[in-house]
Specification:
This is ABC transporter. It is a multi-pass membrane protein. Pfam families: FtsX (PF02687). A nine-stranded mixed beta sheet has the order 6-7-5-8-4-3-10-1-11. A two-stranded antiparallel sheet has the order 2-9. It has 13 helices and eleven strands. The longest helix is centred in the last third of the chain and has 38 residues. Helix 2 crosses helix 9 and helix 12 runs antiparallel to helix 13. The chain has 389 residues and is an alpha+beta fold. The two termini are 29 Å apart.
Length: 389
């Protein structure tokens, strides 16, 4: 008998065994479905964590970024002297430098009057440090006193700001100071800030009068056309000293993601959840397959007596495991997609479902079921044709 018929007949026998006891098949499918959903959700939270962490730096535009070495993440920067950034202007390849100020402030909902924390960005609006057409369109308005731009992707607890603006209600308070919201832009929430506001340097200082503009949070460096970015980065590192970091764009995005992946415990928690989901799923599938083999030992012994090899019986068990992986994964994927949409609506952070994640989770589930099947195969050794007599 060639290889294909062996696999075909083993798979067909495995399928008939599974559908013979439908309650058991449903229980096993639900176990794999549960594991699939658990893994998808843990990976979803992990991806959303990284996506939200990069929502701010991914919109920042500069050739190089300067920040204090003690800065762990952009939402909790360590300030450094503005004069340190200005020293970079002495480099022949550096065209301009701009400081950015960032601080968490209290935004008052115009309807409920309840305050909630958001991130306030202050910078020279002529510099376009944040890539947003809405900010560029409102650049002149933002130069007026006590005005700001509100991130429309902020959590709803800040109020229906777009509707309020259309009704002519545009005055609120940030950190107890009356501020006029002159428009909206889109950036996105993070696990650290539920919303964002952009203002000019002077308005930032009016909102946070205790903050000196001589102390900055992040420095933006623009290079001359044709300049060598790596050489300029190395020169700036030597110029700034050991207390400073100089990143290019990609390094800044990875730095922000790295904080949540390595420094914050959430990355470990979600990763641990993935492992636990696979372990629980493997135990469920193993129990189902082990019980199935035990209940059909006399039938397996009969097949051995008829001349079927032990390898053939192993294929039957492994085929059952693969069927369970397919039967549980497909509805698990559909349920996970629905839960992703629900999570996006509730926490306002993107839950991407790229094909790569689907393929990865299917590989996890298939491996999980195959391992469970490999463990259950040991029970086949008890199938002895001599026991039939």
């Amino acid at each position: 008998m060639t290889s294909f018929p062996i696999f075909f007949f083993a798979a067909r026998l495995a399928w008939r065994q599974l559908i013979y006891d439908k309650p058991k098949l449903i229980a096993a499918t639900l176990g794999v479905l549960f594991a699939s959903v658990l893994v998808f959700m843990q990976l979803g939270f992990l991806d959303s964590l990284y996506a939200s962490a990069a929502s701010a730096p991914i919109k920042m535009r500069a050739d190089l970024f300067v920040l204090h070495k003690q800065t762990e993440a952009l939402w909790r920067p360590v300030q450094f002297e503005r004069s340190a950034l200005m020293r970079a202007l002495g480099h022949p390849d550096i065209r301009a430098v701009y400081p950015m100020y960032m601080l968490l402030g209290q935004f008052k909902n115009m309807d409920t009057r309840i305050q909630r924390t958001l991130m306030v960005y202050g910078y020279d609006l002529n510099s376009n440090l944040i890539d947003s057409a809405d900010i560029r369109a409102r650049r002149d308005d933002l130069k007026r006193q006590d005005v700001a731009l509100f991130d429309i992707a902020s959590r709803p607890e800040f109020g229906p700001v777009s509707e309020q603006l259309s009704e002519g209600r545009d005055v609120t308070e940030i950190n107890g100071r009356r501020i006029t919201i002159v428009g909206t832009f889109r950036m996105g929430t993070t696990f650290a800030a539920d919303g964002n506001v952009v203002a000019s340097e002077l308005n930032f200082h009016r909102i946070f009068p205790q903050r000196s503009l001589d102390k900055i949070d992040l420095g933006f460096v623009l290079l001359s056309s044709g300049a060598d970015v790596r050489k300029a980065q190395a020169d700036l590192l030597a110029l700034m000293g050991r207390e400073m970091r100089v990143f290019n764009y990609d390094q800044l995005v990875e730095f922000e993601k790295g904080y949540w992946e390595n420094s914050a415990p959430m990355g470990f928690i979600f990763g641990f959840g993935v492992v636990m989901g696979l372990v629980v799923g493997m135990v469920i599938v193993y129990q189902i397959l082990f019980t199935d083999v035990s209940n059909n030992l006399s039938q397996y012994a009969t097949l051995k007596a008829m001349g079927y090899s032990h390898f053939y019986l192993q294929l039957v068990v492994l085929s059952s495991a693969i069927y369970l992986a397919l039967l549980g994964f497909v509805p698990g994927l559909a349920l996970s997609l629905a839960l992703y949409r629900l999570a996006e609506q509730e926490i306002f952070i993107p839950f991407p479902m790229p094909f790569g994640k689907v393929a990865t989770v299917f590989a996890f589930i298939l491996t999980m079921c195959s391992l469970a099947g490999a463990l259950a195969i040991r029970r086949l050794k008890a199938a002895n044709p001599a026991d039939m007599f």
